Amino acid sequence: TLPITVRSLSEAIGMKTGELSKRLLKETSQLYGNNSPVDFETAALIAVEKNIELIVKRQKTAEELLIEDFERLTREVDSEKLRPRPPVVTIMGHVDHGKTSLLDKIRRSNVAAGEVGGITQVIRAWSVTHKIEDPETGEKVIERPITFLDTPGHEAFTKMRARGANVTDIAVIVVAATDGVMPQTEEAVAHARAADVRIIVAINKVDAPNANVDRTRRQLYNLELLPDDMGGDIQFVETSALTGQGIDDLLNAILIEAEINLADDLQADPDRPAFGTCLEAYMTSDEGVMATVLVQQGTLKLGDIVLCGANFGRVRSMQNDLGLSIEEAGPSTPVLITGLGGVPNADDPFYAVDELTTAAKIAEAREKKDREASLNRFTAVKDIDMLSAA
Ligand code: GDP
Ligand code: MG
């Protein structure tokens, strides 16, 4: 509810309270005193007659200001110290077009043979190392890491984006050549565009007898996804998660994208306290809260004090994507940590902080902010014509 009263509205639109009460009576068939609340729609309606537009202006609470200050200061990065970091890739597309199969294939082709049997997916995010050719010798010797996130879901994608915490650099849009472009394909493209991430197209299932690559390509062109020979700059890769065809091309395309279009963005300072985003979190009976977080800046270390959403604690254990215990995690690394006092939300930012008291203070502010309905204030904007012209 908005704190609009007859008195405040009268002041805002320059109408005497008596006159305003009469006008309100006519509008709503109710009697109004000077301190009676007026609902926003009615107030706006009467204001418009006076050529005044009422707009709702959110006033930031003390907690929100505290959190904002903290986040701004903690996110300050020294540009002199930036070094290249791996790209973070999300695979999106219509259901059953092969997202999981592609990720699986990428992962398996990347894990040393001896380890394959031992793959237990502890977290839904992982790093792979792709070897590329050394231009001098033609040998595959240069190793480049890539981080994959297992579909955070479109909703999470836009939610994170709304909070300015985009975790993804590149979206691989998977389209099965058997089905072609489907509704969720279009949705995925729209989400990737809204989040302003680079797109790579993987036309999958090219091994299937009913695959129609040409038709699929044409449908994608209609979505204005154009390869460079058609005046665009989108890379197209043909893949089969079944046979492994094109997997290497897809990884190469990701690295090309990272190098050509994202070199300036893919930078992080590994020598600072970590911050990043929680990807998922849940409570377990033996280990307490387990949270998968993506380190985006700095290096997260065992024993660090972390704040994650409205929760905090010391990092008690840290596992990498293979389930191995590690002591440090640098930029673009997904890790599973324990030690938080409560379960954070899937898109909460996390920060390593110096003092437990700081963590506690910000956590409390977040909790309060989440609990309290935000305070609204209304403002009268005079001269509607100018407003609509702007
Ligand atoms: P998701 O819903 O996008 O994650 O799709 P899945 O990876 O679960 O794949 C859906 C179905 O398509 C499964 O039965 C897969 O075996 C099959 N599939 C995935 N990729 C390919 C492919 O490249 N070729 C063929 N023939 N089948 C595939
Ligand atoms: Mg899947």
Cα radius of gyration in angstroms: 26 Å
Helix tally? 12
Bound molecules: guanosine-5'-diphosphate, magnesium ion
Low-confidence region ranges:
112-120, 384-390
Helical residue percent band: 25-40%
Strand content: 25-35%
Sheet with most strands: strand arrangement:
4-5-3-6-7-8
Order of helices and strands: HHHEHEEHHEEHEHEHEHEEEEEEEEEHEH
Whole-number mean pLDDT: 87
Number of strands: 18
Structural class: alpha+beta
- End-to-end Cα distance: 29 Å
Largest sheet: 6 strands, mixed
| Net shape | globular
Family: Belongs to the TRAFAC class translation factor GTPase superfamily. Classic translation factor GTPase family. IF-2 subfamily.
Keywords: Cytoplasm, GTP-binding, Initiation factor, Nucleotide-binding, Protein biosynthesis
Protein name: Translation initiation factor IF-2
Organism: Gemmata palustris
Overview features:
390 residues, alpha+beta, six-stranded mixed sheet, 12 helices, 18 strands, disordered C terminus, binds guanosine-5'-diphosphate, binds magnesium ion
What's a quick, concise take on this entry?
With about 400 residues, this protein is α+β, with helices and mostly antiparallel strands. The chain is built from 12 helices and 18 strands. Helix 4 crosses helix 11.
List the helices and strands and how they pair.
Blueprint: H1 6-13, H2 17-28, H3 40-49, E1 52-58, H4 62-74, E2 83-84, E3 88-93, H5 99-110, H6 113-116, E4 125-133, E5 140-149, H7 153-162, E6 170-176, H8 183-194, E7 198-204, H9 213-222, E8 235-238, H10 247-261, E9 267-268, E10 275-284, E11 288-297, E12 300-301, E13 305-308, E14 311-319, E15 328-329, E16 333-340, E17 349-353, H11 356-371, E18 376-382, H12 384-389
Parallel strand pairs: 3-5, 3-6, 6-7, 7-8
Antiparallel strand pairs: 1-18, 2-9, 4-5, 10-11, 10-17, 11-16, 12-15, 13-14, 13-17, 14-16
The chain binds guanosine-5'-diphosphate and magnesium ion.
